[in-house]
Design a protein that fits this description.
This protein has 8 helices and 4 strands, in the order αβαβββαααααα. It is a multi-pass membrane protein.
Length: 289
């Protein structure tokens, strides 16, 4: 059901992109945006993992350089029936973690040095199980594609806005011209809809990863405890290297401290409180079974 929802939202997002292209440049614009979306998805598919790891200056580690971390990942990967992902450490005191890679065979898990110092072994297992769940369900690829398409729609909306200000764009007699209504849809409605779709995909995948991570580690309460600790740091400090383009990948939004209360309603992550509550409910369910 969750997979069908994701496919539907991705399709809807592509349709919005094509529609925006049509509003800006007619049938030619629709065709251009369709082709461009395919190219963007292809680039995201093959290069999203290497780009984000380089952006955060992540260093690959092994059993010799980070034995405890690699052992935890290896044990969880075996338990989940996954190939062993590459393991990276980011030299950053603020605790956080993410997974990346186009599929389980080309995946990586990255953690900050801060999270390794902050969490207990059980809590680290919960966090890493959460990230391996993302790998198992290819959430990283899906989130990257969604973010790419949403960003492209927002960019086109900005171009249309500036084009309207300076009198550029389609003439009133152009094919399928929507006039001022079409312009407003392109500038305001389409980017907003794309953003909401991005949030819908991201939040549902986070809840899924929490649940499976709790089941995989066998200790949902340890994951809940880890989320609370990471969130406490995130509310007070922003990761210097973090960006809006990659914030959705982390287990807790690394930009939380920069948000106003109203903006926090429009987050790629569900509230940590609701995630913790669901993990507590899962723990109670597992205890009964």
């Amino acid at each position: 059901m969750n997979s069908l929802k994701t496919v539907f939202l991705l399709t809807l997002l592509t349709m919005i992109l094509v529609g925006v292209g049509g509003a800006v440049a007619g049938s030619t614009g629709m065709l251009v945006m369709l082709v461009f979306s395919i190219i963007m998805n292809f680039v995201s598919y093959w290069h999203s993992d290497t780009m984000v790891l380089k952006a955060y200056k992540a260093q690959e580690v092994d059993i010799n350089t980070a034995p405890e971390l690699v052992k935890i990942v290896s044990g969880l990967a075996r338990k989940a029936g996954l190939p062993m992902p590459k393991v990276y450490v980011i030299n950053e005191p603020i605790p956080n973690a993410f997974a990346t890679g186009r599929n389980p065979e080309h995946a990586a898990v990255a953690v900050t040095s801060g999270i390794m110092q902050l969490l207990s072994r059980d809590e680290m297992e919960g966090v890493l199980a959460h990230e391996l769940s993302h790998i198992k369900h290819r959430d990283i690829l899906i989130s990257t594609i969604v973010a790419t398409l949403a960003g492209l729609i927002a960019t086109i909306g900005n171009i249309a806005q500036w084009g309207a200000i300076f009198g550029m764009g389609r003439n009133s007699d152009d094919e399928g011209n929507g006039g001022i209504v079409g312009l407003l849809v392109t500038i305001i409605v389409a980017p907003l809809a794309a953003t909401l779709i991005q949030f819908g995909v991201s939040r549902s995948r986070e809840y899924m990863a929490d649940e499976e991570g709790g089941r995989m580690s066998g200790n949902p309460l340890a994951l809940a405890s880890a989320l609370a600790k990471i969130d406490d740091y995130a509310k007070r400090r922003v990761m210097p290297e973090a960006s809006q383009a990659t914030a959705h990948m982390f287990i807790i939004n690394p930009l939380s401290a920069s948000k106003e209360s109203l903006a926090s309603l429009f987050s790629t992550h569900p509230s940590t409180e609701s995630r913790i509550q669901k993990l507590k409910e899962l723990a109670a369910t597992l205890k009964k079974s």
